[in-house]
Amino acid sequence: MGDVLTARRPVAKQKARLDFPPRGFYTSRVQDWSSILLASVAVLFIGIAKAGFGGGLGMLTTPLCVLAFNQLGKNSTYAIGVLLPLLCAGDAFSLWHYWGKWRKENLKFLLPGVVVGIVLGVNLISWLAAHREDSTRIINQVIGIIAVLFVIFQLTREHLFRAEGAFQPNHKLGIPCGVSMGVVSTFAHGAGPLGALFLVPQRLPKEIFVGSTVLVFTWVNWLKMPFFVIDRTMIDLPLFVAHSMVNADTLSMSLKLFPLVPVGVSIGVWMNRRFSEKRFIQVVLGFLFLTGLQLIFNFDLARPFR
After folding, report:
1. What are residue 33's phi and psi, to 5 degrees?
2. Is the pLDDT of residue 268 over 90?
């Protein structure tokens, strides 16, 4: 009996060594830290973009956050919900800086369509969640496609707006443009190119153009808020999403990330004075294009760590 017990002890020790650390322990730690870093960088980009550096740089925020929170086991709507309060905070900084330097008549042409687009967007998200098991994958692909199209738009915008003469804004073009902005902004907080399609042809002075963009998207983001907070468990109407996208869970994460918004604004102001915006945008567009492809095709980025 003693010989049998003696023979078993080395086996038990060997088994203990094999079980620790658990399989995938280091891979999961790398993924957690990379996800936190990715989300932090994305939120910094909100502030940098709101400081007026990098043009449509803020478009990079949603794709990066979706990738980051997907790695942490969260779905795309969680990332969208976390970002909305942060975008509203960033808008407040920009609105103060550009106060009064805008063409407010653009609001009356765009906002009626924006509200319709937001309602369509939240209902489409609800329908996907209820009827498609792969709803997160589909939303990821939509966000990825929007990111890739944004890069193409940025590279071709100078050719698109070469027509002579200033465009006079009107409801005929403003309402369909607003509907598109509402849908795309609901899915990806990325309606910047659609706003530019309406504002750039007006040939506004640079500061008035930036201020008008800030004003329009401040309204767009705040109009989204009630549709992201209220769901059908609170008010049973088809206007609202089935499950709220801004809730206690997402707000907790938003509060943790919020300090990075003013930090990003400060970085943006500093970069405005010291770096070439054109070269920086080229790097960002390349990164955004790759991020969009990742969301569309879902490459296995964790493979090198296994």
Report:
1. -70, -40
2. no
Q: Is the pTM of this model over 0.70?
A: yes
Domain boundaries, the chain: 25-305
Q: What are the tokens at 218?
A: 């401040």
Q: Which residue has the tokens 């790097």?
A: 283
Q: Are 169 and 106 in contact (CB under 8 A)?
A: yes
Note the maximum CA span of the chain. 99
* 201-242 tens-digit pLDDT: 888 887 888 889 889 999 999 999 999 999 989 998 888 888
User: Contact 150/193 with Cβ under 8 angstroms?
Assistant: yes
The tokens 């509907």 sit on which residue? 179
Residue partners of 97: CB distance under 8 A and separation at least 6? 52
Q: Which two tokens stand for residue 224?
A: 């989204």
Which amino acid is present at 9? R
Q: What are the pLDDT digits (tens) for 115-160?
A: 999 999 999 988 888 888 777 788 888 888 888 888 888 787 766 6
Cis preceding-peptide flag for 21 (omega within 30 of 0): yes
